[in-house]
Write a structure and sequence with these properties.
InterPro entries: DUF2911. The chain is mainly beta and about 190 residues long.
């Protein structure tokens, strides 16, 4: 066997061992996630918004007030912290949100939710004690929005953008609950 083939086989073996070790110790890249990653984007003219999050399933469980307790900070999804990115300055329910990337945190309540846009990026949504990693001193804005009760069941947690009436909203829905966070592009943009 020539030297080139020997080196190629050694490199392929090292790559295979590296993938196996990464999969075993860091993230199982060969099995399906229980709460799959997803990204939702909104583009209109030169405005680009994006949310990256993980989508847990209901699986017959009671969600709000049980699995996701009322009046406590929730990482707004599963696994990694949910991120929101904008390339434009926004008004979120009338409050200024500069362009950038934020983590989204929520406090679900029976009739309203509080939504936080936090300037710190966190590698994961909860710590080793399963407590949300959010640090309140990095909250840039908070808005409180009403809960919309749904007749149908949303099986998998879903974040979306709704602009059907030219009134942009960031929506979150799961089980029989939905919220809408009003957004608009700010007239004040960086030069």
């Amino acid at each position: 066997m020539n030297t080139f083939l020997k080196r190629l086989l050694i490199i392929l073996a090292v790559v295979a061992v590296g993938l196996f070790l990464y999969s075993h110790f860091v993230e199982d890249i060969f099995s399906k996630r229980l709460s799959p990653k997803d990204a939702v984007k909104f583009e209109l003219n030169d405005t680009r918004l994006q949310v990256q999050y993980n989508r847990p399933f209901k699986k017959g469980r009671e969600i709000f007030g049980a699995l996701v307790p009322y009046d406590k900070v929730w990482r707004t999804g599963a696994n990694e912290a949910t991120t929101f990115s904008t390339n434009k300055n926004l008004l979120v329910d009338g409050k200024s949100l500069p362009l950038g990337t934020y983590t989204l945190w929520t406090v679900p309540k029976d009739s309203t939710w509080i939504v936080y846009f936090n300037t710190k990026e966190y590698p994961w949504g909860v710590d080793e004690k399963m407590q949300p990693m959010r640090e309140p001193e990095f909250d840039l804005i908070e808005v409180e929005v009403p809960v919309i009760n749904l007749d149908n069941t949303v099986e998998q947690f879903t974040i979306a953008f709704d602009n059907t009436t030219d009134n942009l909203k960031l929506t979150m829905a799961w089980d029989h609950t939905k919220i809408e966070v009003p957004m608009e592009v700010s007239m004040v943009q960086p030069e």
